[in-house]
Design goal:
- The chain contains four helices and 24 strands.
- The chain has 416 residues and is mainly β.
- The longest helix is centred in the last third of the chain and has 14 residues, at 325-338.
Length: 416
């Protein structure tokens, strides 16, 4: 007979044979077999018949007394059907229940037994006959795989142990790398009785492929395992930056994330391949500065190819030409000031707060000592020219059509 101990957070100490209780931490019911705690399975079988009582003791010598009456038959064992845990609103109605059906009702936190007329709470000291143990024969998952999870997301996967009457200690989950993390889910799916089903929450941590293994650990030496391939998809590319210049003229820039790439090319102009790490993200224009963009910022268009566009070509969207390096840093500083940002470049005698100081008319057309001594503030948030490493990082991606968000990379279209 089972001696019901109620709802507890852990195994009770000094258990006796056939003590049973509901563990509200793990969400399972357990029985002490004399050597170990075994989990109660679903659909237990009725207990065996009780042992008949012994015959009465004969009378003493002398006048023969009447024989003692036979002892009464033993009480039959009580069979239960363990239904496991159920969610709120799923408590079976009397017409759906059978005698000695037992379940744990999550809404109230109580364990109930059906007495033939109604569901009653099982209190400590209640005795019922335990179900027979059944060997684990298999384990299946709610996904055949591969399971694709977006970077930073998660998915819940369910493992079902067969047969339904199997007694198993737990389902052990393991992963073969750190691309995902796993955490047990304490409650079953809505509408599903607990019993032989357990769940795990798989959270994506890094892009790549991971093998998740679920193993049903039986009450005896038997084990059954199955695996699931989980693929973590890369995050969506960061959105581009669109700068409103003037008069409806805009500049779209792609964000490039920091990363490491191989710079240089062996035996080409004395170059040697070497690893370079860009430590900060940056934005780069999708295409060279156009004539209309240069005109909107600088107030002039010095381009040699200022007219006669090819069929289907917009004149204003041709690249600006006939400019020197001084024009490039003046364009960057003037655009920074117009956008309320801190200019990157400083030239002695030039104001970094007055946009007019960086107008087209103030840009030297011949070598200038002060402009040649320009300095750059790499922590400023304004516009600047790309460094050699930044440019090569993006250029290598453009030539190989690598479309990722880390260097070497481009996003939202090729950078020309």
């Amino acid at each position: 007979m089972i001696a019901w101990q109620g709802e507890l957070p852990s195994h009770p100490e000094n258990p006796e044979l056939n003590w049973a209780y509901f563990n509200y931490v793990s969400g399972n019911a357990y029985i002490w077999t004399g050597t170990a705690w075994n989990r109660l399975s679903q659909q237990g079988t009725p207990g065996a018949d009780g042992t008949p009582g012994a015959d009465g003791t004969p009378g003493a010598d002398g006048a023969d007394g009447a024989p003692g009456a036979s002892g009464a038959d033993g009480i039959d064992g009580v069979g239960i059907t363990w239904l496991g845990k159920v969610e709120a609103g799923e408590k079976p109605q009397p017409q759906d229940a059978g005698l000695n059906y037992v379940l744990h009702y999550l809404y109230s936190g109580n364990t109930y037994i059906f007495n033939g007329n109604e569901w009653v709470v099982m209190l400590p000291g209640t005795t019922v006959q335990p179900p027979d143990e059944t060997t684990v024969t298999g384990i299946t998952l709610s996904y055949d795989g591969p399971l694709v999870i977006g970077w930073g997301g998660y998915h819940v996967v369910y493992a079902t142990v067969t047969p339904e009457t199997a007694v198993f200690q737990w389902v052990e989950w393991t992963v073969d790398n750190a691309n995902v993390s796993i955490a047990r889910v304490p409650r079953p799916r809505a509408g599903v009785l607990a019993g032989p089903e357990t769940a795990i929450k798989i959270s994506a941590k890094a892009v790549g492929t991971t093998t998740v293994t679920a193993t049903a650990m039986g009450s005896g030496p038997e084990e059954r395992s199955t695996t699931l391939i989980v693929e973590v998809a890369p995050p969506p590319p960061p959105p581009p930056l669109t700068v409103e210049i003037a008069g409806g003229i805009t500049m779209t820039m792609n964000r490039i994330e920091a990363g490491t790439f191989t710079m240089g090319q062996n035996n080409v102009w004395g170059s040697v391949e070497h690893q370079v790490t860009l430590t900060r993200d940056f934005y780069m224009g999708r295409h060279p500065v156009t004539q209309e963009q240069f005109l909107a910022v600088m107030g002039a268009n010095p381009s040699y190819f200022y007219d006669n566009p090819a069929p289907g070509e917009a004149q204003g969207r041709r690249p600006v030409d006939n400019v020197n390096w001084y024009h490039a840093i003046a364009f960057a500083n003037r655009l920074s000031i117009l956008q309320g940002l801190t200019p990157v470049y400083t030239i002695v005698g030039m104001s970094n707060t007055d946009a007019a100081a960086w107008s087209f008319a103030n840009v030297p057309t011949a070598s200038n000592e002060a402009w040649n001594a320009v300095t750059a503030d790499w922590n400023a948030d304004g516009f600047r020219l790309a460094t050699e490493a930044e440019w090569e990082c993006v250029d290598k991606a453009r030539k190989t059509a690598i479309m990722t968000t880390k260097c070497p990379a481009t996003t939202q279209g090729m950078i020309s």
